[in-house]
Specification:
single chain, A middle domain of Talin 1, two-stranded antiparallel sheet, two-stranded antiparallel ribbon, 4 strands, 2% strand
Length: 350
């Protein structure tokens, strides 16, 4: 830690003298040295800062041609779910345990559907009607959210069906990735149709935001790779061990999702709060599982079936509440949040 603090001091000292005597080479060298020698706390800080930067720029992107459920299903998943993609890629290319990737994906999706939507519903209510002056636009967002929920249940069911032979091979992985990419193409054409109908063009300055998001995504990837390497080398202790990396990574990576859900619920944008969590679930299942399976076959553990049944049951409950009541009642939110604790206690997620 003293070594990292010393490097940080040199970096701050370089920033202080930058205005008087610019030395970009020294500043760049100190920054690179700090990243190369980063410890677990620095990597965790980088992960959180990168996640916050992505969330910050999402607000700007929403005002530049991406609105409502579209931003929740087409833009936010890549930002909040990039850590999951990075984890699946790192584990797949390094020969990591496939069961940990499955745990990561199941923990992520169950958390999204239970506590991350349950608590905002309990605190602010998640109501999908009466939030917009344009009723036709509100109805379109409502129908898009229903389709997104159905897609989540469908993707999970397909993954379960492909895994019935107790293994997901490279061919299965390509099918899962293909499903996700087709869904994204559908979303892109839906956005294009919406912009044509509204006679609106996407602001070209969105490229700046996308570059910032790309930089934040790199920071997320770098921090996840470093944290996985640290835990794998025995750097943690107790619960922070390689055996628990699937659950730990799943809990860590829902932090950006939680920020999105709580923020958009608090500002009365329930449609985005909802779609961001469902869209992030599409990243894990089928995309992350498909990415790992392309690099290495996945042997399905016994806990996988319980996990996917939990996801489909929670997704169906949300589909009923959204389809019939156009909202998630506070009582239902409390029940979903409480059920998460039960799942953890019983070990269903692991």
């Amino acid at each position: 830690m003293d070594k990292q603090l010393d490097l940080l001091w040199h970096l701050l000292d370089g920033l202080k003298s930058l205005a008087a005597t610019p030395n970009y080479h020294a500043l760049f060298k100190d920054t690179c040295t700090l990243f190369v020698n980063a410890g677990p706390w620095e990597l965790l800080g980088l992960f959180l800062l990168s996640s916050l930067l992505m969330v910050w720029r999402l607000n700007a992107i929403e005002q530049k041609g991406f609105e409502g459920t579209v931003i929740g299903t087409l833009v936010m998943p890549y930002c909040s779910g990039f850590a999951n993609l990075a984890f699946a890629y790192v584990m797949g290319t390094s020969g990591g345990d496939a069961a940990m990737v499955l745990e990561n994906c199941i923990v992520n999706n169950v958390t999204n559907l239970t506590i991350l939507l349950g608590i905002p519903a309990l605190l602010w209510g998640l109501t999908l009607s009466g939030n917009k002056e344009d009723r036709s636009e509100e109805k379109l967002d409502y129908l898009s959210l229903l389709l997104t929920l159905i897609a989540m249940i469908f993707f999970t069911a397909v993954t379960w069906a492909l895994a019935r032979d107790h293994v997901l091979d490279q061919g299965d992985g390509l099918v899962l990735i293909g499903l996700f990419l087709f869904w994204q193409v559908f979303q892109i054409f839906d956005l294009m149709k919406s912009n044509v109908r509204k006679e609106r063009a996407i602001n070209p300055w969105i490229l700046v935001d996308l570059i910032l998001v790309g930089g934040a995504a790199w920071g997320t990837y770098y921090s996840i790779e470093g944290l996985v390497a640290w835990v794998s080398s025995g750097g943690g202790g107790g619960i922070i061990s390689y055996k628990q990396i699937g659950i730990l990574s799943g809990l860590l990576m829902v932090v950006p999702n939680g920020i999105l859900a709580f923020y958009y619920a608090a500002v009365d944008r329930s449609d985005i709060a909802y779609s961001s969590q469902i869209g992030d679930g599409h990243i894990c299942i089928p995309m992350c599982i498909g990415i790992y399976a392309v690099f290495s076959p996945i042997k399905i553990p016994a806990s996988f079936e319980a996990g996917v049944i939990t996801i489909m049951a929670a997704g169906t409950a949300h589909l009923v509440f959204v389809g019939v009541f156009k909202r998630l009642p506070r009582a239902a939110g409390a029940l979903l949040a409480a059920s998460y604790g039960f799942f953890i206690y019983k070990g269903i997620l692991g």
